[in-house]
Fold each of these.
Amino acid sequence: MSSTPDFPPKLTPHDPRVLSKTATINGKKYHYLISAPPPPTGGGDAASQPRGTVLLIHGWPDLSFAWRYQVPFLVSLGLRVIVPDLPGFGRSDSPQELTAYSYKSVTRDLLELVESEVPGGRQQIEKEGGIIVGGHDWGGAVAWRFALWFPDLTRAVFSVCTPFWAPRAGEFVPLKQMVEKVLPNFRYQLQLSGPEFEAQVKGEEKIRQFLSGVYGAKGPNGEPVFTTEKGCLFENLPKMGKSPLLDEKEMDYYVKEVAGNDGGSMRGGVNWYRTSQVNFEEERELLKQLEKRGKGEKIVEPPALFVQATKDAALPPAMAEGMERFFEKKLMRREVEASHWALWEQPVKVNQAIAEFLGGVLAEGDAKL
């Protein structure tokens, strides 16, 4: 995406426009990026505060740097932007216990992280009307859950690629059974949740091969490194060329950051695929809270945007059918012609959708100031 007045240049590795920081939240180290509009020349007052706070949440296999096209754009809208590496990724911790990766645990951590970074903490967040929460892939799932656990602290919520699914009552359904009966496009998760992937893909060389392939590279005869049917095709790792979605410096950054976690293992990241039962058990409490709120099916209370990637093999459009029924306010839906990596393949259209959505959210907030 070329730079224009409306779309500032994307972030580069170690970009001076963002600060790279760490914080320990509930015993876990989180690495995160933060950026905010510069104060007006000559100093400012309360009126010069950011128009709000955005929390951006990435997925797998990814980093805070996933949002490199979106962070400068959101800052240009007058927003403070906080972008963490989730547990298991980048410079954040990779705990052994699976509860550290659950929706309940991570949403609580991220709320406390934002409170620690916003001057005035919870009081200022409440004054702003809450946090604008956005996510992609696993980050989309976390964003939706953030809105369920903390509706009064969520000003708005948006997800790119990841549709909303409601917490489930009844009996726990194991991943294998879910794949066989309902979600064949999640078959790859059976491999990722087992021991084979983390045993095979470790160290900088293999991580580079894997990331290149996942981010669009192919072998000389069009061989893929990853399919939703099988997961990683280990025999194709050495065949991968260069990713069409990342330049050389970006790929070097990704490899160093991913391989720098947990001694060159990707164990922490794939722990997210091992959390289905933990999430199910913990969300019994959430279901009780939702019932007490008396909203019926309309359990997502804040304004919401869903950006569907039409060529996403892992999260195909069919998964999003009928999700509108869960939203108290009208769900804004937009489409981009892209694969799972819509943030990078269609950054202008994604940013336009977010800007259109936030236009109403920010106008309402500005009117209250």
Amino acid sequence: MPRLSLLTKQQNLEQFNQESYRTTMNGVHFLVAFVLFALAFTFASASDPSPLQDFCVAINNTNNGAVFVNGKFCKDPKLATANDFFFPGLNIPGNTANQLGSKVTPVTVEQILGLNTLGISLARLDFAPYGGLNPPHTHPRATEILVVLEGTLYVGFVTSNPDNRLITKVLYPGDVFVFPIGLIHFQFNIGNTNAVAFSGLSSQNPGLIPIANAVFGSNPPINPDVLAKAFQLDKTVVTYLQSRF
């Protein structure tokens, strides 16, 4: 009996060791799989930094001219002052005495140098009574979130091709609306009083492309034959539109 008992204990110990080994290996396999998945996810989500201007052409010889970076050069943080992070005057209404009846006062990295690399900017929008328009445009580098302080605005954006779906809303004081990055959008004052709104944008330099100005007011002008065919217009109409911009 003692020999049988000893044999049984040895068998149980061997079985226990085998199960422990399998458990350990399963744990190791899981850990390896987890690490590989994490690395794969890291590689899949890796990308170049977003551009902070229209383009940044590479140069091989820095002695041939000025060198630019993606954004702006940074000063020594020890030399930063409060004025690097400050901009006054957004309480002052913008002058809307123009053809569009609107005025946008931007606060980007050009106005606040401390915004460099922070990925955010701001703008005040003023609209003349009924008809003040911030015309169809796009920000190639930023999503915009707008809040109305005064007046009534009809706003909207158009989704990308092929749907080209128009999404609009009438906004009143306190209302907020979002314009997704890169999509054509507009704001139009449909009230009988001045309208005021503020926008936050997800870039230090969101960029601005007014559609009409870009198409009909490019420098040098786009060949009228191109625009006539693209818009299905008579060439004389295209030439007239180009003269307006």
